[in-house]
Description:
The complex is a heterodimer. Chain A is an all-beta fold. Chain A has strands at residues 4-7, 10-13, 19-25, 32-38, 42-51, 54-57, 64-70, 73-78, 87-95, 98-101, 105-109. The N and C termini of chain B lie far apart (38 Å). In chain B, the strands form two sheets. In chain B, strands 2, 4, 5, 9, 10 and 11 form a six-stranded mixed sheet that branches. A five-stranded antiparallel sheet of chain B has the order 1-3-8-7-6, with no helix packed on it. In chain B, strand 6 and strand 7 (62-67) form a beta hairpin.
Amino acid sequence: DAGITQSPRHKVTETGTPVTLRCHQTENHRYMYWYRQDPGHGLRLIHYSYGVKDTDKGEVSDGYSVSRSKTEDFLLTLESATSSQTSVYFCAISVTNEQFFGPGTRLTVL
Amino acid sequence: DQQVKQNSPSLSVQEGRISILNCDYTNSMFDYFLWYKKYPAEGPTFLISISSIKDKNEDGRFTVFLNKSAKHLSLHIVPSQPGDSAVYFCAASENTGFQKLVFGTGTRLLVSP
């Protein structure tokens, strides 16, 4: 257990509304990541962070923004949710050479 | 363009037999490879990894083989157990430490008693 929690675990929202997902870790790991998992695509990297206020884009970053104002929290924001952003979102941290994942947030955009 | 491919969406194996899950990659810059197991409604769980300087890594019932010339890796589970039934993802990165993992699409393994 790498001490990662995600909130909320489930969310249903409407198209056009803003949504923020939170990832919290308790062990001061430097690197944090956001992925989305969709059928037929595996997991795809959205954004990542290599320190407080240091973030960068991943493979599928369009429509998403992130913030990391303190080491333990990494926030993922959908400024205006669309149905194509219905997915399961996973947060991860790096420990030595491996990544460890949180339990996920299932987001449905109607 | 899928840089990491798992061409078998599913695999069924009997308990006690060997399960072999395959993964192919196209990016020759990948030098670290990982396997994850995922149960429904849970996050992926790290299983085993291998660096490109090795061709085999073993951890209990799990062994990963890497064939760099063929850009192919495989995960062997021996003996398979019903609790191994899950979706298995292979992933690759160009470096260790800070990693931008690229995942395959997953293989659903079903181990029947």
